[in-house]
Amino acid sequence: MIKISPCPTCGSDEQYQSDEVSAGGGYAPNYLPGLGSFFRGAEFRLLMCRSCGLTRFFASSEARQKVTESNKWSRYQSIG
Q1: Is residue 8 part of a domain?
Q2: What is the reported pLDDT for 2?
Q3: What is the pLDDT of residue 41?
Q4: Would residue 4 count as lying in a domain?
Q5: What is the pLDDT of residue 23?
Q6: For 8-60, what is each residue's pLDDT tens digit?
Q7: Is residue 42 part of a domain?
Q8: What domain count does the chain have?
Q9: Domain range spanning residue 34?
Q10: DSSP readout, the chain?
Q11: I need a surface site. Which of 4, 30, 38, 60 has the fewest CB within 10 A?
């Protein structure tokens, strides 16, 4: 379970989450490229604040495990 409260934007405790949904592919955009399998796209869970509407996407544990080996993702290096 992901800790989702309070909302980082408005501070509300009224947060809602979806079941895991496909991150796309095929005819839809692929929001987690290279992290699914050949026949099935990776999945993520959506979290939404009822008060302000902030929506966050959280990749499934299976997708997160593949990210370091995928050639479609590189580690973000902040500057500053």
Answers
A1: no
A2: 60
A3: 85
A4: no
A5: 86
A6: 999 999 999 999 988 887 777 888 888 988 788 899 999 999 999 999 999 99
A7: yes
A8: 1
A9: 15-66
A10: -----S-TTT--S-EEEPPPEE--BTTB--SSTTSS-SSS--EEEEEEETTT--EEEEE-HHHHHHTTT-TT--------
A11: 38
